[in-house]
TrEMBL record:
Alphabetical UniProt keywords: DNA damage, DNA repair, Methyltransferase, Transferase
Protein name as catalogued: methylated-DNA--[protein]-cysteine S-methyltransferase
EC code: 2.1.1.63
GO molecular function annotation: DNA-binding transcription factor activity; methylated-DNA-[protein]-cysteine S-methyltransferase activity; sequence-specific DNA binding
SMART domains noted in UniProt: HTH_ARAC
Origin species: Limnobacter thiooxidans
GO biological process: DNA repair; methylation
One Pfam family this sequence matches: HTH_18
Span of domain HTH araC/xylS-type: 22-125
UniProt family annotation: Belongs to the MGMT family.
PROSITE patterns cross-referenced by the UniProt entry: HTH_ARAC_FAMILY_2, MGMT
Highest taxon of source: Bacteria
InterPro entries from the UniProt entry: HTH_AraC, MethylDNA_cys_MeTrfase_AS, MethylDNA_cys_MeTrfase_DNA-bd, MethylDNA_cys_MeTrfase_DNAb, MGMT_N_sf, WH-like_DNA-bd_sf
Amino acid sequence: MIIPLHPTVKSPESDKNFQLIEKAIRYLEHCVSPTTETDTAPSFADLAKTLDISPTHLQRLFTSWAGISPKQFVMCLQKDHARQLIQTGMSTLSTSNEMGFRSTSKLHRLLVQFEAMTPGEIKSQGAGLTFSIGQGESPFGQAFVCLSNKGINSLEFQTENLSYEQWRQGILQLYPKVQLIQSDPVALQVIEQIFHPHQDATASFGLHLRGTPFQLQVWQALMHLPPGHLASYQQLAAFIGKPAACRAVGSAVAKNPIAYLIPCHRVIQATGELGNYRWDSTRKKALHIWEQGLITTRR
């Protein structure tokens, strides 16, 4: 059952900015691809021309969207840079392992608490439960949010293969007896708190997750990787005490239902390749670049 509450909230300007960022990433990757004749990054003017904007607009886009210069933007796409961050991520996971697992993770000014659904909650198929669902613009395009009274149970990005209606139907397949309340303003408020937290405030979020014990273990481990730190699948498998389970870890990472807050985008290949991402590999690169800017501007 769906109760419409508010109209859809969208920000055309934000969506256009992310489309330009996506186009810039694809163009820069093509320029340094092994299939091209050159492995040097294009000039600032060439990139602006490709995006059909002025160099001044391009500079302003990078600064406002990610807080970094065009040169830093290009550097973030290089495999050597990613490999260096893997080493940092290894150190971070080792420290976290010594401290032991916690149900709370601090990601800059985001305080995230982790709770698994009980077998009874799963068996009920959502009977007696009410979820608030909605969508809104994030720095990475349209995002979909589903909230229970215990926290977020789904946060996904729109892709070519995932529309809002498809996402909503997916919620109903998991919880056929749930009551859904459509509220885009509530979703947008959550999105704003996640991606644009107040400089001096800590935003708190509860995650109410449905998954197998192994999936939950992997997702909880991911929360030990802060922005700017990357880990390989092998490192993540070793961290949870199952070094031979790299493939199973990869499968669990791919099924993560909570984008960004459970940072599966921070797990990459040991070679430095960022690899696939449930919500598009270009968006994974954009997340990586954006977080580098987040660290730079908040040091």
